[in-house]
Amino acid sequence: MSSTNVLSMTESDSFLDKKSTSTDSSDEEKRETWDSPRTFVLVLLGYAVGLGNVWRFPYLCYTYGGGAFLIPYFFFVVVAGIPMFFLEIALGQFTKLSAIEVWKIAPCMKGIGYGCALVNGFCGIYYITVLAWSCLYLFHSVMPGDLPWTTCDNWWNTPNCTSGLISAGANLSAAMEVAVNSTATPMTPLAAVTSSIVSNRAAMPAAEFWKHYILRQSSGLDEVGSFENWPMILAFLVSWIFIYFCVFKGVASSGKIVYISATAPYLMLLVLFIRGMTLPGAFKGIAYLFRPDFQKLAMSETWVNAGSQIFYTYGICFTVLFAFGSYNPKNNNCYKQAIALVFSGSATSLFSSFVIFSILGHLSHTQGIKMEDVADQGPGLAFFVYPVGLSLLPAPKVWSFLFFATLVLVGVDTQFSGVEAIISVLIDVWPGLIKGRKYGREILAAVVCLVLFIIGLPLLSQGGIYIFQLYNTYAASGISLLWLAMFESIAIGWVYGVDRFYDDIESMLGFRPHVYFKICYKYLIPGLTFGIFVFFCINNKPLVVDDYVYPWWANGIGWSMSLVSMCCVPIGFIYHLATNNWQLQRGGSLEELRDMEKKYASPEMVISTIDKQSALEAGSNIELSKMVSSEGLPMKMD
Q1: Number of neighbours of residue 412 by Cβ within 10 angstroms
Q2: How many angstroms separate the most distant Cα atoms in the chain?
Q3: 628: which DSSP letter?
Q4: What percent of the chain has pLDDT over 90?
Q5: Which of 194, 199, 476, 508 has the highest Cβ tally under 10 A?
Q6: DSSP state of 222
Q7: Least confident of 51-55, 128-132, 273-277
Q8: Are the C-beta atoms of residues 285 and 381 closer than 8 Å to each other?
Q9: Distance linking the first and last C-alpha atoms of the chain
Q10: What pLDDT is stored for residue 560 in this prediction?
Q11: pLDDT of 66-93, one tens digit each?
Q12: Taking phi first (over 0 means left), then psi (-120 to 50 degrees means alpha), and beta for anything else, what does residue 555 get?
């Protein structure tokens, strides 16, 4: 028998099957599964619709010229977003393994899994800080009295605090009077108010509440400051406790949470959308959203951020999609679900932008300033502009409650998905952590949450916002995601073989994906991500937060955070060669097949390049239900 034959071994039963070929099935680990396809869709919808849509996407649109950002964004959705989203879900569903173990199909690329796990770990450390901020704003939205970000009589306010510009019911004429009286150089009323609002933005009560109460912000990274921000520490702790109760029972508990957390944000966004579109000046903001600034469209930074935003929003290269796909039954139509979910996530991003830009247009209209001057970048868009805009609405406490409740819900969706993926990776790599242990899953979830909580404590210091931006820019975004996505597509398109991948999908779903996906995996995604990667490196500039420019050593720390996950790919490749006599191995070995069978009792599938005769001589008790030659043609067993 020729040694070039490729075996695609399948079982009619999956890892999830209750039947076992083992003599001691009671000791075998059973893979968890979703209650229904609806639960899986809602979980992924809740994960894809997170703060990346409600906060990050609109801020990038605002920064990079509205329509100028939308053009490359939707281009990358079609070229990279849909194919990569489907790829990760399909691999998880086919192998029933998490992001690290799934690369048994291409062992030399296993470093991709470790890199993705590290990116997800970084995200789990810092992302929950946004959830804690939202919880604190939500708490103050229901407290008696005025909203604390609308007044200047609080202990954190400075003598320069100016509330006349943003108090509820304020109008342009009143704002002009305040501005003209406070301007030393004679100016026209409109020019005076514009200059005053823009230059005194930091003195507004919403800005002081954000910087002096929520953040207790220091002057820079060289002044980390103290940990006396007890409200934030308590909000941080409460957030982690809530996340623990979302994941401690696995998909059984998290699957129930999403019925509320994945649907409620849409209702709240709809309410805010209706109210926002009725505000004076709302259409000025919508026009800004869709009017492209062609100068910014020609900037490489616009394309870099549009590409990385795709991976960030959909959680590509974050291990989550592998883990959630692995909980699906064999015949689940993840192809149709992936396409629908990507378009739903992009539509939600656009819908959230309608809400945001309608309020920004209202602020621009009522305060008489340009759209470009309304808001700061980054976290300030959600935690400065929104409180200002909402405080100008009738019943501002009601609208503030609705908005920050929305932020909390979308933050919970994304955070517990990331933590669930971390736990899934740990269980697959070290099954002994929970196997045969009473409450093993619950204890492991508690340990993971506690470790991430402790590591994240520096984010609550006075210099925490500067550390936050290092994570947000380098560790879990931008260059790291581009690098990992590039090698994921190379691994499937060239190392494992896209034709073999299509065969696997056909054996699972009964049909082959569109040929367009094959072109993406082999050519478009590697080429585009490499191009974006080069643009990022060429145009890289020191990180800036407000007016603070990060020193060289801080940017060095940021690049080190990126390299931690990026280096996993070449290190894993070199390690594979060194342990295999410097030869590439395309698929799992027979020993790995036995390990999987022993671990899961009834494996869904195993992929190997072993010779058929070797498999027969080894006496493998895995039924070879499909034999495929090196040309991919069915062949009968002798």
Answers
A1: 26
A2: 97
A3: E
A4: 31
A5: 476
A6: T
A7: 51-55
A8: no
A9: 10
A10: 94
A11: 888 999 999 999 999 999 999 999 999 9
A12: alpha
